[in-house]
Design a protein that fits this description.
Oligomer: homotetramer
Distance between the termini of chain A: 25 Å
Organism (chains A, B, C, D): Saccharothrix syringae (Nocardiopsis syringae)
Pfam families (chains A, B, C, D): Csp
Protein name (chains A, B, C, D): Four-helix bundle copper-binding protein
Number of domains of chain A: 1
Strand content of chain A: under 5%
Helix content of chain A: over 70%
InterPro entries (chains A, B, C, D): Csp_YhjQ (IPR005560), YHJQ-like (IPR044543)
């Protein structure tokens, strides 16, 4: 889809596509992990995990949308949001990582968060 | 991720995963198509397309989230939303389809909308 | 804001504004109620409530966006979404209503859901 | 609704409520302004405005959700997102401000963006 954009894109299209894919995968993993936590008998120990998952799902989803837009590009907006997104992915990866040995959904979600954090930081690095 | 949900899921997990994937792909295609339309010189002829893309992106994104939740399942909620989603996918597929010969992003987006509409109707059919 | 739209709007602007306000208020109430449920000691008894709140927040937020758009209006899209939204508001109002005597946030949220369901059905009635 | 949260909230509830209200108002103004721009004959001159509106609507909506959650509070997440949100509100306020003399929807939207930027920065200031 990125190849069909009719004007110039200010970022490397391959790297950009990788970040958008990671953001969408992380958003979906977090939505599913929040719900899986709600389905656990031990939900009372997972309330912080649910909350962080909900935040991460929202922020990754929004960041994917913003990065999917190229018209009237503003580097400050992309950069600020990528930084905020990396922060919430770190927070959610840490939280889910702490439950990974107990819950497979948290293990998978922590991996998605870490991959997404890396992708955001990689893009930030090339944006300078 | 669906396999890690700790309780019963009231729908076929393979079919459900296919619908969620189609919804996420359609939502992303619509977000990108809306922006690509804004980047065209002929944007004045594409304003309805932009609007329908924005609606379809929002509705597909929300439907993907709702279908990713299994705790406290309510078939009426899923069914109503799948019907609304199929309607907006039909509308957006028709609108983008009308520009498909001119704009590659509209052609790809129309395909994503039609695939998503089919996936929604397939799931509705097995829900009874 | 509705008064500044530069072309015709196919629905009564006063009624439309009332529905959009009700949708936004309901979406915010549901987001807050989901989190307040997570903060309760009895969260294990509130997992269905959290889930329904999350669905209702998403659907009301999306419906508010769709109804805030008038360019390229498609009555079928608005109608289908209003029906789906009324269904999820009913579901969430019932669920929160069941906890209203125990939790003030559920009582307030149930009221917001019922007001929103009424607003959706009122608009559907005049759409014919 | 904030008064019904069952545990401690790490931020001043009055100030927090003001920011959430500003975020929701700004998100709604931006969604409506994007669509009103699409309805203008001069849409070709407003494509950057539409895009910035869409970003600002998404980021403000997500920030409102994150700030509406208090369970498992992480100050780094709130702070990073408030900074990103202030940046996009500044960008959108400037863009809409440039069209304010021509389009009443842009004038109203620019005001909502500036009020929201101020509210985000005020909260950041007291978070230290």
């Amino acid at each position: 889809m990125l190849e069909t954009y009719p004007a110039e894109i200010n970022l490397d299209r391959v790297k950009l596509a990788a970040v958008i894919d990671a953001l969408i995968a992380c958003s979906e993993a977090c939505t599913a992990c929040a719900d899986a936590c709600l389905g656990e008998d031990s939900v009372a120990e997972l309330t912080k995990c649910v909350r962080t998952n909900l935040d991460c799902a929202d922020v990754c989803g929004t960041t994917a949308r913003v990065l999917s837009r190229h018209t009237g590009y503003d580097a400050n907006v992309s950069r600020g949001l990528l930084e905020a997104c990396a922060t919430v992915c770190r927070s959610c990866g840490d939280e889910c990582g702490g439950h990974a040995s107990m819950h497979e959904h948290c293990r998978i979600c922590a991996e998605a968060c870490r991959a997404c954090e890396r992708a955001c930081r990689d893009l930030l690095a090339v944006m300078g």
